[in-house]
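Need residues for this backbone.
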């Protein structure tokens, strides 16, 4: 029987691939069809940034039932921690794995990417002493507001019980307002250090937030206590109030909306978005352009993102950012078409996911500034070796092995027989979204010992015992490790 001529697998354009890698969770064959010409034309429309307009995958819809403990009440979680039934670290691990599974299987890729962005920008440690009991509901909050307005997001995130517990606002009293929350609000969440606020402003910021607390070690419900609110005149970066009433609940909301709309907050958020989506060192022009849109739109996140995607610097930044270990895990699972099933134990793929990247666990960065971004943090030799090992484990289906289906080596062969150089090209198109290159082919030849003209069948070593080496060449390369 004659061998069928090789028909190159279709690939997205470089611009489409760039959108999938930056605005989504990485290239995959399932995402690629939705990035055609129509999607490109609609990139500036509001509908393309509305998650509800995208039909969610069945697996993503089922994920909440895979991690039912996350929906328990805070008091139930605390009681389980106290009696040793389930500890805080286990709830934190479940949240991390749940989030990683969402990024792998959700069709609402922009939403998942922005949940990751805000989880870092408005960081709350998922396993810290007290905040963990509310961390899953905080994740829900970020998901609701991730593509909305920053002023609304900031108010709700700042006053959420997870943040009140994490930054110690629950400890504030009328006579001793705790300064931690007021300081981090200014330094990390809004105007940034460049605002040159004074220590007195930090103290006034704490006074304004005092009164918002949590019924710790009992119901764990948040509430406002006028008796704990510190009164007296306050002034912070142009915001002034007599603050004479015991009921300062609305004053705090006014203060947060003021900070959200401050010109320096616009600059700070624009800089964070530019670093996350464009470059480790974004230009002043890019930051300024995004800040203008952020301000003019009334802190509209979608409007700011549309301006970012349309900016020449975004288009020029293809393949220049190193993926974090978690981003690498997600992108690798997507291109390898890993199919996880509902977990039945801690060793199941879906629940073990958080341990696979061999890095700081998701949402568990130890400081309130959020996990680092950029090449300096993630381009070390030790990190790369850890990622290479992760790639090989996932390619070979070696670990995790329970409640998961991995594709076999032979299943990647598109026809009965194919020349080695054509097979490498096919794999590049399937996993990298672009054709092979002489550099990749040369590395594949060295890794497998095959010549470019070797005929590959499903029984050949390249499709069986050596398939981990071959696919590893692609996933260990900068073409996959960068986004």
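Answer:
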């Amino acid at each position: 029987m004659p061998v069928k001529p090789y028909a190159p697998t279709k690939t997205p354009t470089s611009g489409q691939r760039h959108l999938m890698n930056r605005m989504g969770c990485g290239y995959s064959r399932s995402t690629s069809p939705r990035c055609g010409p129509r999607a490109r034309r609609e990139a500036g429309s509001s509908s393309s940034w509305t998650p509800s307009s995208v039909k969610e995958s069945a697996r993503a819809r089922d994920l909440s039932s895979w991690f039912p403990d996350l929906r328990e009440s805070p008091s139930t979680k605390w009681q389980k921690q106290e009696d040793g039934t389930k500890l805080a670290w286990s709830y934190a691990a479940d949240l991390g794995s749940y989030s990683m599974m969402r990024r792998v299987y959700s069709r609402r890729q922009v939403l998942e990417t922005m949940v990751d962005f805000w989880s870092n920008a408005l960081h709350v440690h998922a396993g810290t002493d007290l905040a963990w009991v509310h961390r899953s509901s905080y994740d829900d909050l970020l998901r609701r507001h991730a593509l909305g307005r920053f002023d609304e997001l900031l108010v709700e995130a700042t006053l959420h019980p997870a943040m009140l517990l994490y930054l110690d606002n629950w400890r504030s009293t009328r006579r001793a307002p705790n300064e931690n929350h007021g300081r981090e609000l200014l330094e990390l969440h809004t105007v940034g250090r460049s605002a040159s606020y004074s220590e007195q402003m930090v103290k006034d910021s704490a006074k304004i937030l005092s009164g918002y607390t949590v019924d710790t070690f009992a119901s764990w419900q948040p509430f406002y206590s006028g008796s704990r609110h510190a009164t007296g005149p306050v002034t912070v970066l142009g915001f002034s109030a007599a603050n004479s009433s015991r009921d300062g609940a609305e004053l705090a909301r006014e203060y947060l909306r003021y900070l959200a709309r401050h010109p320096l907050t616009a600059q700070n958020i624009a800089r964070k978005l530019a670093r996350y989506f464009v470059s480790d060192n974004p230009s002043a022009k890019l930051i300024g352009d995004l800040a203008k849109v952020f301000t003019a739109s009334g802190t509209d996140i979608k409007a700011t993102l549309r301006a970012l995607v349309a900016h020449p610097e975004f288009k020029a930044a293809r393949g220049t950012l190193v993926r974090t270990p978690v981003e690498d895990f997600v992108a690798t699972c997507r291109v390898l078409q890993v199919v996880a099933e509902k977990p039945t134990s801690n060793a199941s793929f879906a629940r073990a996911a958080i341990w696979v990247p061999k890095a700081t666990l998701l949402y568990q960065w130890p400081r309130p500034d959020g996990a680092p971004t950029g090449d300096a943090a993630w381009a070390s030799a030790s990190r790369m070796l850890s990622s290479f090992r992760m790639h090989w484990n996932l390619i070979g289906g070696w670990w995790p092995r329970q409640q998961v289906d991995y594709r076999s080596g032979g299943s990647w062969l598109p026809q009965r027989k194919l020349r080695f150089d054509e097979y490498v090209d096919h794999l590049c198109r399937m996993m990298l979204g672009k054709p092979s290159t002489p550099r990749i082919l040369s590395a594949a030849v060295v890794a497998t010992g095959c010549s470019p003209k070797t005929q590959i069948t499903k029984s050949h070593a390249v499709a069986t015992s050596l398939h981990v080496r071959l696919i590893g060449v692609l996933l260990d390369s900068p073409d996959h490790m960068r986004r």
